[in-house]
Design brief:
The structure is a homodimer. By secondary structure, chain A is an alpha/beta fold. Chain A has 18 helices and 20 strands.
Chain lengths: 546, 546
């Protein structure tokens, strides 16, 4: 039996467009003579459709789109994920399309309602297994989390008879370390059921989430035999062959797709895809960003160029009296290296006029933090003015470390449509910079940018280290507090300084309001600031007590 | 049996503070010789604690706080809502405190996971009824949604024996029309079980949510006998008296608390409480807002004064060449009427410098929309500069109608900490203005503000009606589309113009990104922009197809 996994980039809400893509892949699958063509979870409407699922007409449209797709693709058995309204309830379902119509429907039973997932908000769980026969093989259909609850699954499929393949359609978002877990799950599933597993994952960026593809087949020994591309569309085809000794073999039809080289490469590809899709799927072509000559904006610009190509990226330097010729020069050098348009708009005259105006209020301080923030807000206003005038999206350049502690000016450097590296800790930003230079085969990001101590350059001789602990230490505390929900006490017990820990935690807690008004950005860690981490702004749970 | 409902303003995360308040109320209840003292759902930690519940030490602290509370209040039976970690799972629980310790625990069975609620994210449902005997009466303990599922409840309590009172501890957020539903539920519950119902609700503002109190007792005929204050703390005490004919009577110990006079009054009180609590609970005393001489900023300022008193509110006019002497005069008049400080900072010189700088970029248009937005951003930057300098929170003044269609400048008029009227449709803003003048007994908001056609005053002779349909029509469409999830087709069938409907829907859909970066504000409708309505930014579900 020949099976094909149609790992494609579905767009949320674009029912007709997604169906059209599936038709194209179907034509390809027909040419490759497959028996079974599989698409990801909620392929018809994209994942996650969120509260679109509260619109009755949306569910009706999903159903109409599915019917048409079935009629348009009558020659092969297809498995298509869709949002289903059935007897006044909604389900996350997989339709089995055969002979031009829907022959069976499997309804997802395990509905994740943690982390970034809210499936209990939308769906009722199904409770009936669906096993189909394709090309002489018994294939059990499952959806995403269903195979992550192995003990439940064993019980669920107990009376399903002999199964040669478990099929799983997923929309499993990327984060660091996720692929390893997924492979373990797929492998364990194959071994438990002594059958092949076909795992078809979504690919593409959707707001903060990145779906990384990497669909795969495992044989009944639990060995991953074939893996589709990472962060790109692919059609992975394999023959599923039951043997007389009771095992099920998998024979791939293609040579192995290249996989990310290392962690930095994986993150880099995630950021590139996330940026390309957010910008493109929202109808933008060009982006605009401030280049400070620092590491964050340099890495963001390089990712933007990789995502959208140099002619669609514009860099802007907006110097004040506090910017050194070195950083301005490095910004220019970076722009030249990337081959992007580079504009210079000095902010000094505007800053002076603001200062004049604000001086009329008694108590205004032309050297304080308000004055520092003002510079960032002038820059934000200039970027947004150009965005409004020319229709390019502004990319912000803040990393996860400064987003966590609120080392940013709201409506200043946080102003923009998409925050490319908002989930990348500062220490990882350096690794990415090195990776970018490595894969370019030359110093795209100037050496000085990598070695100069980070500074916001909003007052004379300012350094990040004046306000923050060293980034190595900061990132350690943040990982424990933000990503692992550790208490101050637990962090101190790991050998971290109590004072620093308490200070950092206080900064993280107090800046929830800033994060709430910041743009979305690519999620790469198991817990990003976003749907993953829903904390109240009004919150007196004190750092001292933790 | 004498029961008291301790409707108090819990602060999320302030475990010690909440416990202290409960101790004070306990002392009061002891003086009133009550048998049973009841506190709201999750009274120990406030509602909703959101992802604080993912911190193990938070749950430990909740438990320690509860133990101490029990020890501190040994003389009466108390019911206290708390977040419970039990056998590796979390529950939304009600502790029965007696003789200085926890004698029983009821675990909420119905966990809402829709609208603003995410309880399945945090809790497992309980499945055992708890009936306690207090002063000779059998009292069944329930939590919030438990009594909203009547058929389930009847079954759940089937074997619980004769019950004289059902107790319900709630954190039921306010929206227009909610109190009516609540009374129906309480009344129906009393009739179904032929017993008294004691309903204790939370009060206070928590980020976007307002808890309106209005705790109540119903007798076994389903009649609401006593109702606590709205939007304020209260201790409602009544005697619960079973009679020989099998009914249960309720005799209140106080005269009836005053209730909101009408819809405008109810909304007004919600906005005042929400503003007071967001500002105060986040550690601010003073607020700052731009006064344009328009209706939105006028109403916002009046609410701020009611919430925080005149000396804590500063109004700012920031005129450009497009502002008329009439609107500037009205802003000044309003400030005088409210007795607040009034500052004037003209933006013209700053605008000119921005324009000079931006003109260096080919294609910049000194008369276009970018130039209009720039004026709003200069104002936002001035407000934020003063906020940073003086530590006052900026209130934004956008209403629900313009928030819906994106008729606002991101980082301009949306810049601030709290959006007081973000869930108030424009047509209701007028009603509120009239209400404010009525309760003040004089024209606080100048007559001209109520009659002048609304304008953003960002270019010569601009009117809102140049860009938007009449607000009467707009608000009708928005109610249908946003609050009721109707399709374009359904709205057209209600007799609304197809072109206008499609144009409005397109505006709503396209401006999700702006709303996502806007500050929180008071929720007053059944579906606000916020946790109620979670739509993807990247979304191609087209208005044309709806």
């Amino acid at each position: 039996m020949r099976a094909a996994l149609g790992q494609f980039n579905a767009v949320v809400g674009d029912l007709a467009g997604n169906a059209e893509k599936m038709c194209e892949i179907y034509a390809q699958a027909v040419r490759s003579d497959v028996d079974l063509l599989v698409f990801p979870e909620l392929a018809v409407c994209g994942y996650p459709p969120e509260d679109l699922l509260h619109k009755k007409h949306f569910l009706t449209d999903c159903s109409l789109t599915l019917d048409k797709l079935a009629a348009d693709c009558p020659k092969k058995t297809m498995i298509v994920g869709f949002a289903e309204s059935y007897q006044e309830n909604n389900y996350n379902s997989a339709a089995v399309l055969q002979d031009g119509r829907i022959s069976k429907i499997y309804r997802k039973a395990q509905l994740p309602n943690y982390g970034v997932f809210d499936e209990r908000r939308y769906f009722l769980p199904g409770n009936e297994p669906v096993v189909i026969n394709v090309g002489g093989l018994n294939v059990a259909v499952t959806i995403c989390a269903d195979i992550w609850e192995m003990e439940w699954l064993i019980n669920f499929l107990r009376d399903a008879g002999q199964i040669q393949m478990i099929l799983n359609i997923s929309a499993s978002p990327f984060h660091i370390g996720k692929i390893k877990k997924r492979q373990e799950i797929v492998s364990r599933c194959a071994k438990e059921f002594n059958c092949a597993v076909a795992y078809c994952n979504l690919v593409g960026g959707q707001d903060e989430l990145i779906f990384d593809g990497r669909s795969m087949f495992a044989d009944s020994n639990g060995k991953i035999i074939a893996k589709a591309r990472a962060f790109d569309e692919d059609l992975l085809i394999a023959d599923i062959i039951p043997t007389t000794d009771g095992t099920v073999q998998v024979e791939p039809m293609q040579t192995a797709a290249p996989q990310p080289g290392d962690l930095a490469d994986e993150i880099y590809q995630a950021l590139v895809l996330g940026t390309r899709d957010y910008v493109g799927k929202n109808g933008f072509t060009k982006v605009l960003l401030g280049l400070s000559g620092g590491i964050d904006s340099s890495v963001t610009a390089a990712i933007a160029v990789a995502a959208l190509s140099a002619e669609n990226v514009v860099g802007l330097t907006m110097p004040s009296k506090f910017n050194s010729p070195e950083t301005i020069g490095d910004a220019q050098k970076l722009a030249r290296n990337l081959g992007i348009e580079f504009l210079t708009i000095p902010i000094e005259p505007i800053l002076e006029q603001f200062d004049e105006a604000l001086k009329t209020v008694r108590g205004w301080n032309s050297e304080g933090i308000a004055y520092e923030n003002l510079q960032a807000r002038i820059r934000g206003s200039i970027l947004m003015s150009l965005s409004n005038q020319f229709g390019s999206m502004v990319l912000t350049t803040g990393n996860k470390s400064e987003t966590a502690v609120g080392y940013a000016t709201l409506y200043g450097d946080t102003a923009g449509g998409f925050a490319v590296i908002k989930d990348v800790p500062k220490t990882m930003v350096y690794t990415l910079a090195e990776h970018i230079n490595k894969i370019s085969g030359r110093q795209i990001i100037p050496a000085a940018v990598l070695t100069r101590p980070p500074s916001a350059e909003l007052k004379p001789d300012q350094k990040d280290s004046d306000s923050l602990p060293d980034y190595d230490l900061l990132d350690k505390i943040l990982k424990g507090y933000v990503e692992e929900d550790k208490s101050a006490q637990q962090l101190v017990e790991l050998g971290l300084s109590r004072d620093v820990v308490l200070r950092v935690i206080r900064m993280v807690d107090r800046n929830e309001y800033k994060r709430r008004q910041s743009p979305p950005g690519v999620r790469i860690t198991p817990k990003a600031f976003g749907k993953d981490r829903r904390l109240p702004i009004t919150n007196r749970y004190g750092s001292c007590k933790q």
